[in-house]
Write a structure and sequence with these properties.
153 residues; alpha+beta; four-stranded mixed sheet; 22% helix; globular
Length: 153
C-alpha cells in the first residue's frame, strides 16, 4: 500500500515502525531460512544444506503450521527485530528483511514488487526443487554433510 508520498511502506518505514501485517508481508516465501545450516566449529564458516525443516512445504516454500511452528519445532527462529536480523549471518543476502533493514530496495522477484507469489520460484531463488531431505530423516550431525550445498558466511 503506497504511503502519502506515493512510496510503498517498506521504502518509508523502518522495520521497527511496521505493523505486524506489514512485517509479515516482507517474507518473500523463498523458504531458504528454513533450510538447515551447518557451522564449522573450527573456522566459523556457515554452510547451507538441502535439508529442510519438517514444516516447510516443498512446493509453496511456506510453513505448514506457521502459527504453531515454535511449539512444534523448538529451535525455529522467529524474526522480530532489525538487530536480530543483522546478527543472523546465515540469512540470505537478498532476504527482504535484511534488505529493508539496510535501506535497500526489494528484488524484482519479491511479490510486493512483482505482484505475484510465483516470481520468487520462477527466478530460481526459492527452496523449491532444492530440498533433498527433511530434518527428521537424519539422526546424527554427520548425516548432514552430504547435503551441504554452499558456503553462506
Amino acid at each position: 500500500m503506497p504511503s502519502k508520498a506515493g512510496l510503498p511502506f517498506w521504502q518509508v518505514k523502518s522495520l521497527a515502525e511496521m505493523s505486524g501485517q506489514e512485517w509479515e508481508s516482507l517474507c518473500d516465501g523463498c523458504g531458504r531460512c528454513c533450510l538447515h545450516k551447518i557451522e564449522d566449529i573450527d573456522t566459523g564458516a556457515i554452510y547451507e544444506t538441502s535439508i529442510a525443516c519438517i514444516l516447510l512445504d516443498s512446493q509453496s516454500c511456506r510453513c505448514r503450521n506457521y502459527t504453531e511452528r515454535q511449539k512444534l519445532v523448538p529451535d525455529c527462529i522467529r524474526l522480530s527485530s532489525a538487530r536480530q536480523i543483522a546478527a543472523l549471518s546465515w540469512l540470505p543476502h537478498d532476504c527482504a528483511y535484511r534488505l529493508v533493514a539496510a535501506g535497500k530496495k526489494l528484488k524484482w522477484w519479491h511479490y510486493l514488487v512483482s505482484g505475484s507469489r510465483d516470481t520468487v520460484h520462477e527466478a530460481g531463488i526459492s527452496a523449491r526443487g532444492k530440498i533433498k531431505a527433511y530434518e527428521n530423516a537424519l539422526a546424527e550431525p554427520e548425516d548432514y554433510l552430504p547435503y551441504i550445498t554452499h558456503k553462506i558466511a
